[in-house]
Specification:
Strand content: under 5%
Structural class: mainly alpha
Largest sheet: none
Radius of gyration: 21 Å
Helix content: over 70%
Distance between the termini: 55 Å
Number of helices: 16
Length: 321
């Protein structure tokens, strides 16, 4: 059985190599597209937040916000208040940033593996600027549609969090105290022996390395979707949808160009955004590779999120327009 697996892997790799050589023009276009996505969307939107998050963690922001939000996070999601850092920063910056923030809290012992798995499942947000700017204005050419997609995408993740509240539950007891929050933040900051220069240098290095990993994964999956498109004969809508669930941005672009009703475009778009695409899944798992986080709960959450947000857009679309 193991030998058969090795043979199959080698056969697939040889097929991919031949496909790249035979259809090099399409592959080069895919690589160019991935570089444009990285340059225009991913790097500008993620790099500042990656650097900022590292600095905030070192300066005690997790302790501050964790103490202030422990009541909300405990009652709503049955998770430590510190998870609010991942939740809030992920809403602002989008995926795969949630994996980086989760790893930071996991590495310093703030969260255990069960809690890290749980928060990862309902913080897989797409960047709000990407949804409003790129998806709604550039792809769909309809700002109202983008706002509906954004609302349903975000509400869907919150619903997933509530549904998973009994998965690895952990609650912070006690009342919320602003003074306690300030004290914890201060103690964390003064306990950190690194000076600001070292913190900034380490933040820049880890952020750039993470973003290069993201670029590599996106490029790889765009090449895979190109090979699939050239190999499997499907109608354009099905092909665009398949591509979107493999690499999200490419699928969103081509779905917006299809001659189908806006309602269907919005439903498919929010489902792709909520699922994230296998490319985003691989980015997240690569960032967390040494943490040994379970993938199955995350995958189930993404499927449920995709279905919930898609149903919400379908039901609300006619009231929205």
């Amino acid at each position: 059985m193991k030998k058969l697996t090795s043979i199959l892997i080698m056969a697939v790799l040889i097929f991919v190599a031949i496909s790249i050589l035979v259809d090099s023009e399409s592959i080069l276009r895919s690589v160019e597209f991935s570089l444009n996505i990285f340059k225009e969307n991913i790097f500008p939107s993620l790099f500042p937040f990656f650097v900022l998050s590292n600095i905030l963690v070192k300066c005690g922001f997790v302790e501050l916000i964790g103490t202030l939000f422990k009541g909300i996070m405990g009652r709503m999601f049955r998770i430590k208040g510190a998870a609010a850092f991942v939740f809030i920063m992920s809403i602002i910056s989008g995926n795969p940033a949630n994996a980086k923030y989760t790893k930071e809290l996991l590495d310093n012992g703030t969260l255990n593996k069960g809690e890290a798995t749980k928060i990862l499942c309902f913080t897989c947000f797409s960047n709000p600027l990407f949804i409003i700017g790129t998806v709604s204005l550039i792809f769909l050419n309809n700002k109202e549609a983008g706002i509906l997609i954004l609302i349903c995408h975000y509400l869907g993740n919150i619903i997933i969090g509530v549904m998973m509240r009994n998965y690895c539950p952990s609650e912070d007891g006690g009342k919320v105290s602003f003074r306690e929050a300030i004290d914890k933040m201060h103690n964390k900051r003064i306990s950190n022996n690194e000076n600001l220069g070292v913190i900034l240098t380490n933040s820049l290095t880890t952020s750039i390395n993470t973003l290069l990993l993201v670029l590599g994964v996106i490029t790889t999956f765009l090449v895979i979707t190109t090979i699939i498109s050239e190999t499997i004969s499907l109608n354009s809508v099905m092909q665009s949808t398949l591509n979107g669930f493999i690499e999200m941005t490419q699928g969103l672009k081509y779905i917006s160009m299809e001659a189908i009703p806006l309602k269907l475009k919005c439903v498919l778009a929010v489902m792709m955004l909520s699922f994230g695409g296998l490319s985003v899944h691989m980015q997240i798992m690569s960032i967390l590779s040494d943490a040994k986080i379970k993938y199955l709960p995350f995958l189930c959450a993404r499927v449920m999120h995709s279905l919930i947000s898609g149903m919400m857009v379908y039901l609300l679309f006619d009231f929205w327009f």
